Amino acid sequence: MAEPVLIAGEWRDADASSTFQAVNPRTTEELPGDYPVSTWQDLDAMLDAAVDAYRVMRLLPAETLAAFLDLYASKIEADIETLATVADEETALGKSPRFMNGEIPRTINQLQQAAAAARDGSWATPTIDTGTGLRSMMRPLGVVCVFGPNNFPFAYNGVAGGDFAAAIAAGNPVIAKGHPSHPKTSQMLAEFAFEAVKETDGMPASAVQFFQRSSRDDGAKLMADPRNAALGFTGSRPAGMALKKACDDNGKLAYLEMSSINPVVLLPGALSEKLDDIVEQFLGSVLMGCGQFCTNPGLVLGLKGDGIESFITKATEQFNAKPGGTLLNEAGQKSLSSGIEAIKSVGATCVTEGQAGDGFSVPNTLLKIDGASFLSDPEKVQTEAFGNSSLVVIADDVDQLLAIVRTLEGNLTGCVYSAAAGGDDEAYAAIEPDLSDRVGRLINDKMPTGVAVVSAQNHGGPYPATGHPGFTAVGFPATLRRFCKLTSYDNVREARLPDLLQDTNPGSVWRWVDGAYTQADIGAAVG
Amino acid sequence: MAEPVLIAGEWRDADASSTFQAVNPRTTEELPGDYPVSTWQDLDAMLDAAVDAYRVMRLLPAETLAAFLDLYASKIEADIETLATVADEETALGKSPRFMNGEIPRTINQLQQAAAAARDGSWATPTIDTGTGLRSMMRPLGVVCVFGPNNFPFAYNGVAGGDFAAAIAAGNPVIAKGHPSHPKTSQMLAEFAFEAVKETDGMPASAVQFFQRSSRDDGAKLMADPRNAALGFTGSRPAGMALKKACDDNGKLAYLEMSSINPVVLLPGALSEKLDDIVEQFLGSVLMGCGQFCTNPGLVLGLKGDGIESFITKATEQFNAKPGGTLLNEAGQKSLSSGIEAIKSVGATCVTEGQAGDGFSVPNTLLKIDGASFLSDPEKVQTEAFGNSSLVVIADDVDQLLAIVRTLEGNLTGCVYSAAAGGDDEAYAAIEPDLSDRVGRLINDKMPTGVAVVSAQNHGGPYPATGHPGFTAVGFPATLRRFCKLTSYDNVREARLPDLLQDTNPGSVWRWVDGAYTQADIGAAVG
User: Fold this and answer.
1) What DSSP string describes A383-413?
2) Cβ(B42)–Cβ(B15) under 8 Å?
3) Which residues of B touch A469 (CB under 8 A)?
């Protein structure tokens, strides 16, 4: 019997076209448990139930949403060790420190931060013009589908991660899709979420629904459906682009986080000041988690000279010194290998000669290419090779480096290492504007991995890293603003206004009133 | 010789595939002046120049952008009478009060508000997390194309209106397209804009470029081009949808304001309290400017009974009492007539029998339909009949009214008139959540026309009224946030940060620091 799906407030048998099993990436053997590939009948039923849930949720006090998020977080915390064990079996990412000390605590923290943002209310940018009486704020949007990726079974999981937390905190029901790389982990999370729903007074039973998988066509049909409002997606570019198209063509919002190769510019002064530090930081960033991070430094840009050559030599030694790690699944292994081949086909050469490791694995791979070759086919040479691989580009001079930067696609991050003593300042000034235009987060003197969950974070960036450069997938309260609509209330009687817009500030909400932020009541300052 | 276009800092002959003339809508005769239909060669040249301009503008102090906007506003003000005369000839909307006392002053005010928003800086939501050192803000986006509509030759003009002002204030160059209904008005505005560019120290000559028209294919090619970043569009649904698709398919942002029929619900208690007032307000709103407003009340929803019947009787008398006004152009006349026919084909009957007026004109038209017939083809009966026409729907009861509301497409506005004494409160509560979900601005007890340019305005709404329900085309500073990208600065040395993110607040900018808005310097509160 296949495992169930969570539809309309109950765990029930899927209407399944087939089933699949998870695979242990270390052994490449199937794990126990048959998981369903849902047909349209399941998705259709979820959409109906989600619309009903939305009609309740849009009127709920923020406290109810917050209480649910906090309760769900506490349930994850209470079973952290089991969750970490299950996820490690399915992903080989490591029970500890990765899950126990990193990703699960982060996930719990995200749910709690989302709860705090919902309680605070300032995220909704309540705006009041006392002269005309117009008042506006962000309101819930409708049914939100969240599709999680393979590489973060908790922090970006469709039923537990940042998109999920943001969509719920903004007042929307979620239809969550698991990922075939970690079905048991996702199902356990969905179970905790549903328990928390049931135990939270006022939350409709279908506030959270969950399925494991569908056909690609049904996924697109789900996006296009009039009952759906938006998508939160983290994953590969081909999958993301197909869903984006289905959303775009039907006026649905698509918030996507797709590929990124995260250029790191190593200027000569910085290499001369602290070569060993930079090599060490690079190794930690590019090989950690077998390189399977959205912000993995897949592209290093340097200027011709001893500095970058020494960097390559030292990094190569370290790459060769140990076998490649275990990748998440066979698809990841194939995709990494074919990405490397695409980069080579433009003229890059492989400078490493290490060994593959256990299970699904590819040797740690460092490639290099000269600037002119890069510019001969900049699109192809930017193919994402997701995993323990990176490409070093050696530009002839700053002009060529700038020309290369100007060919870069949109990325989540871009780093520049420059001399503390100031020797690289001219080169920095030459490339910074074009680099920062092409990235969501501009970094100085450190590597891109490590995404702090703070308000000034931007885990986003220009297309095709995401679908809209104005939004972030990480960082409260901004991340809530993706899953909402702006509503202006014109001459609406005060008792009919949402509490955030009434004369009396319902808490300590920051509101934009007549051109300034204030926590005061309306009329309080007058008389 | 055809009139010139403004490309790369000079007025020059277009590379034109053909020319066109404006038409006086009152006489239906052509006005003097041949205007060019630009080929791709012109658009290509504008894109190159705009990229160069962007590279300068992204580094400009906000004061430069603001000074340009203020200077441009003053130039329009200085020649207001000529502009009003020219625009009236091209549109028949009326020199005064429409242009002299309404639209041109509003346009001047919008440019000045955009300047003030740029100077203030709070629009960019500077965000600082002192714990991690991460700092983020909205930054300019790139080249913005702005396509204006037929019905607002100033306030929404591609080279003078709200989208233009917002794009420039946020630091982006604009490629503006005129509208064939008012080419001379647009050209004069572009002339003033270019003079202001030249007279503003630091503004690149190609900050503003202008063309009159292109083929549809070239318009789509302009959107898709890698050098373009975004579109601001106001106009018809077919044109908007074609441009949206070209943007979506290529990862460009499309901010569109398309069709809207602006439902107005008249509840029985309100009709019983103040029927004559409501009829008068409705007439003013639906026939003003010959009904050619984005927020024209094209759909009235009532409950079966004496109230709505009396409303229809009184409105019909007034509709019949005078001939229809003059529409903007022949296309508008045809589109209005065919919209009325589409609505009739679903079962609506025309209750008016007035006369057409001068030039391009259609009789004032009031239609009515019962709720069941509306629900038989809700999509078709919502066809926009843009002009001096409206459809009254008579629902059997509140349940059917709610069912009708739930079939409504996204609209800019939705109104509810309800009894002051409270007799309609139950019906209001039943329909408000679904109505407000489907509109950008929810209104009580007044008609939708009249869009105040204030911070709490939302001139936007769910698809297909616009392409994204989170943004507004009117209302500073929010409207600037469409034409920008979020950039996070991680570990970036302080001297390299934009001034809005440095420790010292460069003015009185509101910044979100560690979870609260403040105008203080960083570190100022400590010690």
Assistant:
1) ----SSEEEEEEESSHHHHHHHHTTPPPEEE
2) yes
3) 141, 253, 485-486
Rounded mean pLDDT, A428-436: 98
CB contact residues (below 8 A), chain A span 99-128, against chain B: 120, 122, 125, 127-128
Q: At what angle do helices A62-78 and A80-91 cross, to 10 degrees?
A: 70
Q: How far is A201 from chain B (nearest CA, A)?
A: 21
**pLDDT at res. A423:** 95
Residues in chain A: 527
Are residues A55 and B433, on separate chains, in Cβ contact within 8 Å? yes
> Is B41-258+472-480 assigned to CATH 3.40.605.10?
yes
Q: Which helix (H) or strand (E) holds B64?
A: helix B62-78
A positions 286-305 inside 8 Å of B (CB): none
* Domain segments of chain A as ranges: 52-258+472-480, 263-444
Pairing of strands B411-417, B439-444: parallel
Common-topology check for domains B41-258+472-480 and B263-444: no
pLDDT band at A525 (very low <50, low <70, confident <90, very high): low
Out of B247, B290, B294, B484, pick the active-site residue. Answer: B294
For B404-425, the pLDDT digits (tens) are 999 999 999 999 999 999 999 9
Superfamily of domain A263-444: Aldehyde Dehydrogenase; Chain A, domain 2 (3.40.309.10)
pTM over 0.90: yes
Of A128, A433, A472, the CB nearest to B55: A433
Give the CATH H-level superfamily of domain A52-258+472-480.
Aldehyde Dehydrogenase; Chain A, domain 1 (3.40.605.10)
Q: Which of B418, B458, B467 is nearest to B439 (CA)?
A: B458
For a pLDDT cut of 90, what percent of chain A falls above it?
99
Q: What is the pLDDT of residue B523?
A: 87
Binned at pLDDT 50, 70 and 90, residue B1 comes out as confident
